[in-house]
Amino acid sequence: MTTFHLVEQLAEACVICGQNILYSSDVNNEQYVGYDAKFCKRCDRWLEGTCEDPLCKYCPDRPPKPSLVHYTEVGA
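RE: above sequence
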């Protein structure tokens, strides 16, 4: 089964490059993965830091850069 990184485009723009910000969904299941964080695809950076909660289902597995998520599907 293929897993998709579920993201949506936000109306906000990156303060560095002006590109629309994307939101990595908070959906995590067998079909979709999300990291519950905003990011800029052009700058290849997360716009929100990770938390320190060892039981968090998003932060511990979040790659250092959004481009390291090899599968992407832009959702609504």
